[in-house]
Structure formats: structure tokens, C-alpha cells
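In this supplementary section we document a worked example of the pipeline. Step one takes a protein sequence of length 410 as its only input; no multiple sequence alignment statistics are reported here. Step two produces a three-dimensional model, which step three serialises into C-alpha cells for compact storage. The input and output of this example are shown verbatim.
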Amino acid sequence: MSNSREYDVSLIKSEFPVFSKNIYGKQLVYLDNAASSQKPNIVIDKMANAYRYEYANVHRGLHYLSNKATENYEDARKTVAEFINSNHVNEIVFTKNATEALNLVAHSYGGEMLTEGDEIILTIMEHHSNIVPWHFLREKNKIKIKWLSVNDDGDIDLDEFRSLITDKTKLISLTHMSNVLGTVLPIKEMIAIAHDKNIPVVVDGTQAIVHHKVDVQDLDVDFYVFTGHKLYGPSGIGVLYGKSDYLEKMVPYQGGGEMIEEVYTDRVVYGKPPQRFEAGTPAIIQSLGLKVAIDYINTIGQEKILQHENLLKDYAENKLKDIDGLKIIGNSKTKGAIFSFILEGIHPHDVSTIIDRSGVAVRAGMHCAEPLLARYNVQSTCRASFAMYNTIEDVDILCNSLLECKKFFR
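The serialised model returned by step three reads:
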């Protein structure tokens, strides 16, 4: 779809109905986008219409509604494949979220291919979704997890990355963009280093794909996962991209309907990917919502969205640094529009609660990244994360609310 629209943030914001709502009598300033984004009318309306007039289960039905639902579902798969430039539509597996996609790879690839003494490499900045599934394998298969550190700015060292790779390294799983620091890793270069040793790479693209154009063929990545609810689409839908060669060799993650070719009393014949990994009734309407969200993003243009978010990032960084006692965690030059910070002498939970009364929504806590926060010797932070509909005024309101918070605790 061509990028035919001029970037008009006021128009974009008006297309998200939540912003017509006031919070405690104040306009909503939603800065919790790294956790989940808001949804435009076009996504909400399309899903509601499908529930009202087009709902049926997909595949194998021969009536009109089932055929229509199946067409929508598989069109969504095609849209995702085009969005990330997959080589083939069958390399796209729908899951319920990115967490399930990572667990699928850990179980169906790692559980079968990794044995006692094998090593995998993770970064210390991973989300728990890209840590805990590998701990399952550490406990069950007795594999070893090795950790790539970050410096004070939140950057990794490629020489350290190379030094962690040994003959026992069988898999590398990396975030593309940190949900805490905003750091964007040099994924393409890291994949090339891994492939030089014939090591497959899994990438958690949950944060990155919202802000950056992702081309899985250009990256040459083996597995790439993301979720719909951060991408202006619904919850309940995630994506696993996997190279065909890997998906063909992997055993199913779950058993049930749809994922088989034949079932007998003494044996089963599994279906081909991607159906092999989509047991049971799938996310029928959610897949349609994801398709519409991607189409909506494409009408605006990811490059234009990124340019806007970078303007917000630069402006917010300067404004936040002017607040006495505020410390930003992570200052990578690759940083996206995500700011984790602490306000001296005030617990992040208190900061979040106080500024909420000004209509400002930020996240406070560990952000499902406990090892990373331990690296910076903090137990929790506030996090303000920006999206296509945020404005300069939103930044100003955030900073003014933080100044008022300081006065409250003076």
C-alpha cells in the first residue's frame, strides 16, 4: 500500500477514540506504549463488524461465512508476510502473543535440538519472555545460558559477543530493541557473526517492529517474533516468522485440531507449517485486526512515523535532563523513544501515581527485565514510551507533572 498521507499528528490522534476521554478532568497523555499501544477506530470498527456479520470458524467449513473467515485469516497472514518481507507466506505462524512465539521456538526447536552442555547466548537486556523459556531448557535439558552485558549507556560490545561464542554455542536469542533502555541492537551484524559459525538466531522484535521497518530476508534472521497489541492492533495475536527449513524440521508445540493431516488410534501425521503450529481455533478476529493495523501503519508510512518519534525523543530527552534529580537509565546513540528514569528520593510507583492525576500514563516497575535493572543497581524505574500519536505537548505535560510531583514530596 502506498504511503499517500502527509504526517498530521493531530489527525492521527483523532483517529484513536481513547483520546476523546479525559482522566481526572485532564486530557489523556498516554506514554505506556512499550507495554501496549492504543487502537485506531479503523481496527476497532473492522473487528466489531466481523464479529457482527462475518464470524465463523476458519478452514474446512464449506459455507459462506466459514469461507469468508478463512479468506480474511489467510489474507492477514499474507499481509504480515509482506510487512516483514518474508520469502513465503507459510513462514508466518500465528500465536496468541510474542511470548507464546518464543516459547514455541524454545520448545519445538530448542527442546529437540539442544542437549546437556550446549550453550545459548542471551543479552542481559532481554524481556522475561526471552529469558524464562530458556531457563526451562536449562532446567530440563541441562543447557547453559551465557549473558552478553551492556555498558552504562546501554550498548553491547561486539567483541564481547564474539568472545562468548564457542563450539558449544547452539543458539542465540536477542532483543532487537530494549523495552527498558530503548537501545536498538546491531542485529544484522550479530546475525552475520552467528551465521559464520552456523548458529541460528532468534530475535524478539516486539519493540523494534513498532518503530522500524523490518526486512527478515535482509537481516537473514532465522526466527523473528512480535505481537499485535503493541503494533496498534488487538491483543490475543502474535507472530512467529521462521525460515522454512527450520519450521519443517520442528515438532508441534501443541496438539489438537487443525495441526494434523491424519489421526489414527496408533499414530498421527502432523500438518505442514504453519498449520502444524496453530492447534485449535485460532485468533480469527484478532488476525483481521492485526491486518488492518498493519494496513493503517502502511498508509502513514513507517519512515514518517519514525521521523516523528525521533523528534519527540530528542525533545523529551532535553526536557527530562533539565529536571533536577531525574536520571535517565540508558543513553545509547541508537536509542528509540523510550525513557526509563528515576526521580531522586521518590519511589517510581509514587511518581506514577501522582502524575496519573495529571492525566499522564507511564509505567512503573521492573518492566519484566529484572536482570537488566539489577545491572544498573535499581529495583524499579518509571518508563515513558512514545508512539505515532504522541505530541510535543504530551512531553511538556509529562515534564510539568514531574515537576509538580517533586513539589508534592518536597
